[in-house]
Design goal:
This protein has 20 helices and 9 strands. With 421 residues, it is an alpha/beta fold. The strands form 3 sheets. A 5-stranded parallel β-sheet has the order 2-3-6-1-7, with helices on one face. Strands 4-5 form a two-stranded antiparallel ribbon. Strand 4 and strand 5 form a beta hairpin. Helix 9 crosses helix 11 and helix 18 packs across helix 19. It is elongated. The chain starts with a helix and ends with a helix. About 15% of the residues have low confidence. Bound molecules: adenosine-5'-diphosphate and magnesium ion (MG). Adenosine-5'-diphosphate (ADP) binds next to helix 11. Magnesium ion binds next to loops.
């Protein structure tokens, strides 16, 4: 029996991790048998080497080895791909076609991403695994084949079974032997070793001196989560080899090629997703509403001040913190500009301008003319009422009434004339 070391060399597998060694050893042991094997592990951990080792070390090594990516074949054609079809079985089936199970008779089929197989295909697969029998699509003739199956998956099969996406009986039939490949983050000792190997491969490929990591960069390399495992590590090594001018790579440079830590954290699984989403949305909405209400109150205060006071700059000074609160730092300048503009207007005119402005804006809504007239009228009425009451309260003393109304004496005088009071 070939040694683990020899196999690693033959198949270009780098690393000395005990779990990796154990998995390779298992592949070697199981190879001469016809037992089905399920290779499990995250994406990019190197699952594809295992079926190759098994095939090469088996008595089938002179037979065919076919790797099928179950996730990449459309659901409508997968049965025909795997088991073949009869002429006229469906539109476009102009000829009889042999499927992989017929072609690989005497060899090995590697079913990658087996968890993606449609349920109907799973039934056919179970049958072929149990007694070597299959039927072409559109045929009624049972055929026999002798194929060894090695399957691989990066999805949690128990979860898939629970969700009824994968048949339990097929799972047990496929996973007589389970070979698990550990994620890179659990193979700390191998990370730098693999990086050096890839760096030297790419230096050779691109005819450049080999990149080298500083001690700090090695630290970063070891601490990273490597969700994409060896495939990701290899990509990072290639990118740095090609894109960096200096050949000594610092921690900061390396970090530039790694996704941020946040992206590497495992996703928090929410049990009642919609509930929690909704409550957080509601919280956000409440917050927005409260903030808006508080802004509105502040604006009201400021507007009152402006209406009472002749000097906009005084108002600005007196209400600095309020202005800051409403407009923030960035807009403080804009606000100052708008105050400058306001100075041109004489503040005592403000009240009448306010109603003028409302009149103008109402003009735009031609579709609601009647309502508009009423509203304008009622606004004048209200204004009139306010002035009357105020004058009454102060026994006709305009100064006091003007102060109460927040307008200048001059404006009040004009209003009295306008309304014929
Ligand atoms: N131990 C290893 N040594 C060297 N290269 C490896 C090793 N494991 C995986 N690779 C490389 O990493 C890449 C991803 O491996 P692959 O078998 O396709 O992963 P999986 O099928 O688990 O997603 C391939 O380019 C493969 O050659
Ligand atoms: Mg793969």
């Amino acid at each position: 029996m070939e040694s683990v070391q020899a196999i690693k060399q033959r198949f270009g597998i780098i690393g000395n991790d005990p779990k990796l060694n154990r998995s390779i050893e298992k592949a070697i042991q199981v190879a001469p048998t016809d037992i089905s094997v399920l290779v499990t592990g995250e994406s990019g951990v190197g699952k594809e080497s295992i079926p190759k080792i098994i095939h090469q070390l088996s008595h089938r090594k002179h037979g065919k080895y076919i790797a099928v990516n179950c996730g990449a074949i459309p659901e409508g054609t997968i049965d025909s791909e795997l088991f073949g079809h009869e002429k006229g079985a469906f539109t476009g089936a102009t000829n009889t076609r042999e499927g992989y199970f017929e072609v690989a008779d005497g060899g090995t089929i590697f079913l990658d991403e087996v968890g993606e197989l449609p349920l109907t295909t799973q039934v056919r697969l179970l049958r072929v695994l149990e007694n070597g029998e299959f039927i072409k699509v559109g045929s009624s003739k049972v055929q026999k084949t002798d194929v060894r199956i090695v399957a691989a998956t990066n999805v949690n099969m128990f979860e898939a079974i629970k969700k009824e996406k994968f048949r339990e009986d097929l799972f047990y039939r496929l996973s007589t032997i389970d070979i698990h490949l550990p994620p890179l983050r659990e193979r700390k000792e191998d990370i730098h070793l693999l990086f050096r190997k890839f760096a030297s491969d790419f230096a050779l490929k691109y005819k450049m001196p080999t990149i080298k990591l500083t001690d700090d960069a090695v630290e970063v390399l070891l601490k990273h989560r490597w969700n994409g495992n060896i495939r990701q590590l290899r990509n990072v090594a290639e990118q740095i080899s090609v894109l960096e001018h200096t050949r000594t790579i610092s921690a900061a440079t390396l970090k530039g090629y790694l996704p941020s830590e946040g992206d590497n954290l495992p996703a928090i699984i929410k049990t009642s997703k919609s509930d929690s989403d909704f409550s957080s949305e509601r919280e956000i909405l409440y917050k927005v509403l409260f903030d808006m209400k508080s802004d509105l109150n502040d604006l009201k205060k400021l507007t009152m001040e402006l209406m009472k006071n002749e000097n906009a700059h005084d108002v600005q000074k007196k209400n600095e913190s309020l202005i800051q609160k409403i407009y923030g730092d960035e807009e403080a300048e804009d606000y100052e500009d708008s105050i400058e503009d306001m100075e041109v207007l004489s503040i005592p005119e403000k009240m009448s301008q306010l109603s003028d402005a409302i009149d103008e804006s109402n003009d735009k809504y031609h579709f609601a003319e009647e309502v508009e007239e009423e509203e304008t009228l009622s606004l004048h009425d209200k204004e009139l009422e306010l002035i009357k009451k105020s004058l009454e309260r102060h026994q006709g003393k305009r100064k006091l009434a003007a102060a109460e109304l927040g307008i200048s004496e001059r404006t009040l005088y004009r209003k009295i004339k306008q309304f014929d009071l």
